[in-house]
Design a protein that fits this description.
eight-stranded mixed sheet, 4 helices, GNAT_dom, Aminopeptidase, N-acetyltransferase, two-stranded antiparallel sheet, alpha+beta, transferase, 10 strands
Length: about 160
């Protein structure tokens, strides 16, 4: 399923933050938060390999992964995107923030942009998120964004759904 044209990656502009495609020149700053299938990059090379997989998933229509950019500094502060379920008209929304930006509202603003894009551009019928039961900041963020807990799994995860 191809939701987007790859040469026309959808960038989303907000007042304080924007969502844009991650470039090779961003990878040095993103090693700390580069993950694929729950495996974290340890080097720039591994981050590049992960980003190549993410880009292929996008070309295949299986996900969309944005860098969250501070509009004032033009620095990437985190990432977010839809990573599963697009073939069923739904999207698992995930996010990661660079630690030096914790508690500054960047993730909330980035997620609001992604939610709006998912509902109004992608026409998703369901947006959901999963996190560890111990990840109190993520749980608080999801609840502030009007996600409601819908299920706890045996492997220590909680699933939330946008209402």
């Amino acid at each position: 399923m191809n939701l987007f044209q790859y040469g026309n990656f959808p960038n989303v502009k907000g007042s304080r933050v924007s969502l844009r495609q991650i470039l090779d020149t961003d990878l040095d700053d993103l090693v700390e938060i580069s993950f694929y299938d729950a495996i974290q990059a340890k080097t720039i090379q591994q981050a590049a390999e992960i980003q190549a997989k993410i880009n292929q998933d996008y070309r295949d229509g299986n996900s969309i992964h944005w860098g969250i950019v501070d509009n004032a500094t033009h620095k990437i502060v985190g990432t977010c995107g839809y990573y599963r379920g697009l073939d069923k008209g739904e999207g698992e929304l995930g996010c990661v923030l660079l630690s030096k930006y914790y508690g500054q509202g960047y993730m909330r603003e980035g997620m609001l942009l992604a939610i709006d894009f998912g509902l109004n551009q992608m026409k998703l019928e369901r947006i959901w998120a999963a996190t560890s039961q111990q990840n109190a900041p993520a749980i608080k963020l999801l609840e502030r964004l009007n996600f409601v807990k819908v299920k706890e799994t045996d492997d220590d995860e909680i699933e939330y759904e946008l209402r």
